Here is the input.
Amino acid sequence: MTTSIIPLAVVTGASNGIGYELAKQFAKNGYDLLITATGSNIEEVAKEIAQTSKAEIETVQADLATYEGVETLYNKIKSLNRPVDAIAINAGVGVGGDFARETDLQDELNLINLNVVSSVHLAKRVVKDMLERGKGKILFTSSIAAIMPGPFEAVYAASKAFIQSFSLSLRNELKDTGITVTALQPGPTDTNFFHRADMDDTKAGAGPKDDPAEVAKQGFEALMAGKESVVAGSIMTKIQSAVAKVLPDGAKTEMHRQLTEPGSAN
Here is the structure.
């Protein structure tokens, strides 16, 4: 294996939103990058980041909601012949609406494949390589939705609860190995998430949102510090998370419903 004094970071879902800002954080802080997304615009993203940093940036276009897509990314990682010093497993999608009467099954199965299955698949590949070196940092993009049931985005909230539990469990298994695992928990963030999830008419979709650059900065700093998790974003997001942690399940489920029920923005 070739060696480089410059660390390498992998960021999934890097074409926009939090993933894009995470990639910028890594580049700004001296990492070379391998970034991936489903769309071809990942090439333009690489050029944008390269203009404001000294990072060498590799790209791969792959649909991580498929087994083949994850393997394509991992094969690209191996082809670089460089160790992965940090990885942000960030790619994800939401689906909003009434589970029984509105949402599409295929959309929800795709959500599970991307948010859950691909995260486990990619972590399984990368963590073994990190163990051989006794070094590495893994960041999972979870959500404050992970700590509360999510009416009208039921499958999404459940997927993030999985990621939160998986991240904390993996962190514990890897203690004393030189590998740290951190869960990034953003609240409502100013990305295209709500529009893609068909949630523009919800209170959460239409309401104030956190700056994805600030969310990514807090996530990156927590990763570098080896923290277990970080609720990232504004003070209001942190307060909302703190309140949700002490509420009984029924109360926080109802609180979530008020934010995500279709038409609640009106």
